[in-house]
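Quality-control log, excerpt.
Job 1 of 2 completed; input and output follow.
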Amino acid sequence: MKSIAALQAVVTAVPFDGEPSDAELDAIEQEMPLILAEVDLLDVEIWMLDRPATVLDERRIRRARNRVMAARRDLTNRLGSGEAA
C-alpha cells in the first residue's frame, strides 16, 4: 500500500486563513448592486410561488427583472471602460 503523506504536504503547503483577500472584497463590492438586484428578484419570485399572479405582481416581477438587467449593464459598462481597476 502506498502512503500519500509525501503528497499531502504539497497540497496543504499554503495555509488557508478563511478570509477573502482585498482583491476579492473589491470585486464583491463592485458587484454588490447586481447582487442586491438579484436578491430582490429572488424575493419577488419566492413571494409569488404560492399565489396566483395579479397585474400588480406581474409589474413587480418586471420591475425586479429590469433592475437586474440595468445592474448587469452598469457592471459590464464599468468593467469594459476600465473603471474596475
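Job 2 of 2 completed; input and output follow.
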Amino acid sequence: MKSIAALHKVVTPWSDGLEPSDAELDAIEQELPLILAEVDLLDVEIAVLDRAPAELDERRIRRARRRVLIERRTLINQAAAANMPGGAA
C-alpha cells in the first residue's frame, strides 16, 4: 500500500502571530454575554426542530430571544457610551 504524504510546502507556516492579540481577546470577552445568549437561543431552536413546539418550548424560545435582544442592546449602549466625548451617556 502506498503511503500518502504531503508533497507541497505548508501553505500557512506556523508563527507566533497566530494567537489572538490582547485587544482581540478583550473584544471577545466584552461580547461573551451576547455570544452565550445566541448559543442558548440556538440550543432551544435545535431542540424543537423535529417536533412542534409545546407551550413550554415557546416560552423558552421567547425568553432566549429576549435575552439576545437585551445583550445586543447592552453591547450597543456600551459602544455608544465609549464613543461619546467626555464619557457621558
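Post-run check on job 2. The mean pLDDT is 86.
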